[in-house]
């Protein structure tokens, strides 16, 4: 199997030495996405629902570039600055998984890149 780098201008460019996603065989590993507007490169200002919506849009753009969508997601990891915002994040996140949601963990962290409140990574498969 060959490792293939997935890259799209419709999601934020990496801010470090990593790829937006790596496809290996039928598996896709998406790096953590934060609420950056890919058109401007700026963090999307707003409440946690606004941030989470932008994160999900960024993930969707990467999935689309790889020929996948949210039905292909097997596992997600959610990183929150404040676990008190869990219900609001879960409301937005859950709207993308109507049937058969993936496995997931959610953890509170002490810091995230660019001072954002949420970061989400995903693993998908065909």
What key attributes describe this structure?
six-stranded mixed β-sheet, about 130 residues, about 20% helix, alpha+beta, 6 strands, globular
Largest sheet: 6 strands, mixed
Mean pLDDT: 96
**Which percent band covers the strand fraction?**
25-35%
Give the low-pLDDT segments: none
Count of helical segments?
Answer: 2
In whole angstroms, how far apart are the ends?
14 Å
Secondary-structure element string: EEEHEHEE
| Shape summary | globular
- As laid out across the biggest beta sheet, the strand order is 1-2-3-6-4-5
Helix content: 10-25%
What structural category arises from helix and sheet content? alpha+beta
Number of strands: 6
Question: What Rg, in angstroms, do the CA atoms define?
Answer: 14 Å
Give a nutshell description of this structure.
By secondary structure, this protein is of the alpha+beta class.
Walk me through the structure.
This protein has 126 residues and is α+β, with helices and mostly antiparallel strands. The chain has helices at 48-65, 86-94; strands spanning 3-6, 21-24, 27-33, 73-80, 103-108, 118-125. A hairpin with a 2-residue loop joins β2 (21-24) and β3 (27-33). α1 runs parallel beside α2 (86-94).
Structural topology:
Layout: E1 3-6, E2 21-24, E3 27-33, H1 48-65, E4 73-80, H2 86-94, E5 103-108, E6 118-125
Parallel strand pairs: 4-5
Antiparallel strand pairs: 1-2, 2-3, 3-6, 4-6
Helix pairs in contact: 1-2
